[in-house]
Amino acid sequence: MQVTLTRLFGAATLASAILVAGCGNDDGAAETRSIKVGTMSGPESEVMEVAVQIARERYDLEVQIIEFTDYVSPNAALADGSLDANAFQHEPYLRSMIEDRGYDLAVAGYTFVYPIGAYSERHDSIEELPERALIALPNDPTNGGRAMILMHNAGLIELDDPENLEATPINVVENPRGLRFREIEAAQLPRVLTDVDLAFINNTFAQPAGLRLDDALIQEGAESPYVNLIAVRAGDEEREEIQQLVSAYQSDEVAAKAAELFDGGAVPGWQ
Hints:
Its main location: membrane. The chain has 271 residues and is of the alpha/beta class. It is built from eight helices and 13 strands. α2 (43-59) links the parallel β1 and β2 (62-68).
């Protein structure tokens, strides 16, 4: 009888262990089929929602969108493991964050070029800009550099190195109109438009503020090197769930949604 009870107890223990192990495997499988991606709040999140739906339908992959309103937090959250990926930045900005903060991040795929434009509520052309006009620029290095290069190309200023993607006002060597510059957080630029002569605003923030790229006095073209991307922690570039997200994002449905929301201000960077 003792032997029988021992055998029964042993069998029950083994069965329980198998059941627990099975549950653990199921939970692990479920976790690997769900990822978190960071985006900018607004139309970029709406574009990502289309990719989320495609990922669910095609790959049985659940993607949770985490929204941000600044350019710093998404990379910090990706680096500390709070996110599996983010989709909000171009490669020059990612490189600058890696260099400045030591993040071990990498590119998994490309999304759109969101051109930057120079808008004004005071003037109808750059020729109308007065002496000592006040120009508002994004205060992050790469987007500020985009604005400086566009002004150089438009003949408003001359830079010491027009190829420097992180040019700032200190790199101006010729400023015939005595233009003044104010560096402001990118998300705040639409709000200061009435207070300045010209403001360089990323389409990410221009579109929700009712600004159309066609109305910009200076605008970036489709040849821009600032293609946005999906960033991940280094080593995750080929992770199955990440590549499925990239594939879902680089779809005709997502391109169509971006064209609708950005009114031509989003150029697919994967084609």
